[in-house]
Design brief:
By secondary structure, the protein is mainly α. It contains 5 helices and no strands. It is found in: Cellular thylakoid lumen.
Length: about 120
């Protein structure tokens, strides 16, 4: 009985691993693609290619995001939602799920050094 339960649990784990991963990957790709469109329409004027036209050292490259504590979805979402200094707040301009998509895109692009 114990072997049967163990085998069943392993089978369930394998099914979850092999059959949900592509769906999760597709969802992440869709989120990033949506974020790219939103970024292009709302952020690219100041942050084209991950740069920052107002404060060059506070760009969206991986090392700068890490240096300024902006290397997590939560930090980027807070910054985009509430704004800070020269950056305007997008709360009310963008839906919460749109801001999450932008954060996913920024992190994805920073990991690629903003190269397509």
């Amino acid at each position: 009985m114990k072997k049967l339960m163990s085998s069943l649990l392993v089978a369930i784990a394998l099914c979850l691993t092999f059959f949900t991963t592509p769906a999760l990957a597709d969802a992440a790709t869709a989120l990033t693609a949506r974020g790219a469109k939103l970024f292009s329409a709302n952020c690219a004027a100041c942050h084209q290619g991950g740069n920052n036209v107002i404060s060059a050292n506070k760009n969206l490259k991986a090392d700068a995001l890490k240096q300024y504590g902006m290397d997590s979805p939560e930090a980027i979402i807070a910054q985009v939602t509430n704004g800070k200094n020269a950056m305007p707040a997008f709360k009310g301009r963008l839906k919460e799920e749109d801001i999450q998509a932008v954060a996913a895109y920024v992190l994805d692009q920073s990991a690629k050094d903003w190269k397509k």
